[in-house]
Amino acid sequence: MFDIDKWQEIFATIKKNKMRTFLTGFSVAWGIFMLMILLGAGNGLSNGVSENFMRDAVNAMWLWSGRTSIPYQGMQENREIRFTNADYDILKDLEGIEHTSGRYYIGGNLFSYGSEYGEYTAITCHPDLKDVESIEIVDGRFVNQVDIDQTRKSVVLGKDIYDALFDGKEAIGEYVRVNNIPFKVVGICKEGGGTRHRNAYIPVTTGQKVFNGSNRLHNFALTINAETIEESQAIENRVRERLARKHKFDATDESAMGSYSKLEDVIQTMKIFQAIDIFIWIIGIGTLIAGVVGVSNIMLIVVKERTKEIGIRKAIGASPSSVIGLILLEAVMITTIAGYIGLVLGTGLMEGLNFIVEKQFEASAATNGGNGETLFRNPTVDLGIAMSATLLLVVAGAIAGYIPAKRAAKIKPIEALRDE
Amino acid sequence: MISLNNVHKSYVTGTNSLHVLKGIDLEINAGEFVSIMGSSGSGKSTLLNILGILDNYDEGSYYLNGSLVKDMSEKKAAKLRNDLVGFVFQSFNLISFKNAMENVALPLYYQGVNRKRRNKIALEYLEKVGLLDWATHLPNEMSGGQKQRVAIARSLISQPKIIFADEPTGALDTSTSYEVMDILKEINDDGITVILVTHEHDIAAMTQKIVRLKDGRIDEIIKNGDLKHFQHQYAKELETA
Questions:
Q1: What residues in A contact B89, CB-CB < 8 Å?
Q2: Measured between alpha carbons, how far is B180 from B149 in angstroms, rounded to an integer?
Q3: Pick from B54, B86, B106: which is nearest to A413 by CB?
Q4: Where are the beta strands (DSSP E) in A56-158?
Q5: What pLDDT, in 10s, does the model give residues A279-301?
Q6: ipTM associated with this complex
Q7: I need a labelling partner for A218 at 20 to 30 A (CA). Which of A61, A187, B22, B204 fits?
């Protein structure tokens, strides 16, 4: 195998048959190149869209209350449904629910610190909201259970509020006035995947107490423990039935209580992506098959063309195995190197594309408060897949060369010599 | 050296069977210069291919250098060819993408001689056939006579005991034919057995022994001493023709 002389013989043969070598190599390199581009483009599309999608927890669910539209148990329609802290306790322990947070909104809040002031939204919530809405903590911490229990006057500021009021100064531990009531800043946060960070978060108990909310909650944000649409719907139905029984409205009344489960959307979209993935794979496999056929074809012709040479070599004392070995090694070497070239070119092109896409992403992110919009991100191919594809072509070329080479080496030299 | 006993050979093509050799008995000793003659289809090339282990036979026995050659594996046949036999073909059979030196050196590659050494030896043999200046030329840049001389150098490089030549002058004009025959004669003078197939009487007349085939059987064997008689008969044949 590592006989230098054998390799010299192979290199000498390759050098003097450039066209043949080029054609064999080209069919392999082209196949791999196309495969890399196809799979890369598919991955890029898939990555781009799913990144846009993952801004909130994918298994988030929201509930909000309204007025009934269906008469129920002798009660008139158009009755207002109000969530309370008791509903929070029910939801928290309901099967299939992971994180729960109630929310109580306070409208028209004036935030001020020193001489700086501005109007922002204050959301009162439970600690779990951080998980449901994928809130990122930039500094300090989020609202915690102690804040809730002790109704502390703590506030977590959105990055935009912090920038406006503090302008880079240390904020943690400072007091911010919300509607003229001082709150201690405990953290700075960003909305998960969002472009604006203009919300401030206050413990729900504090909010209710300070802003006259008594035990009232406006809506709930949950994450659910579901993997399929069916599971998600089952949990949604369970939540609706439980709260409908408590508040005495028809469980099917969407107007009395609205609910939205993100998972259902995500799963639907993921299905489309699976379909696209399958489509890309079908094209990829088709490209590979075309490559395999191309390589096999050329190998068949090459061996046919060399039948006479095989006869000559045998007449002067070449054993069949040495003849087969020569042809096979040559084929494997050409296909491997060509496959590698295709791999490098394909990867290079996709990396180049990735560079341009990232530049565009950064440009759009700069004008959009740190979050770019793109449908195409990281269009690269798993190296393992690329390697396996190359290997497949090499093996196919070797087999396609081996069968006729074996036949040519097996026939009597005189027949091979007669071949013109 | 060579001993054939009742050798039969048929070619089967589809349902037709062509009985080419119908029982050949032949002894050739080491150092002989033998020609095999016969009209087209008499089986002379087939006989040579069997002698050179390029083809197999159906019946009988063939001893080459004391060992039986029958149903040999390709690997063993290849080894035997490499060790004992050199070939010269009518159509030269040089590898077109190798130059003269590389063509001559190729048998040594299969003997495991390293590149530098085998190329040096190849140049020596090219010098012997007077083609040292053509060492780096490809076959298609050479004349027929030159190609044949390269082929002879190639057949000699493995220092074989027997040279088989299938119509070595068939594609050459008369003067180059004689040059090639002179080289073959020199080879024979060095003690190597030379067996050639030809249908040209003047070429055959340069050998020591003529085996005439007719319809797959040996018609007659003419020894050196009888050559005068052969030439007489040859003249008679020409008259009747």
A1: 417
A2: 7
A3: B54
A4: 60-65, 83-84, 97-113, 116-125, 136-140, 154-158
A5: 888 888 888 788 878 878 888 88
A6: 0.83
A7: A187
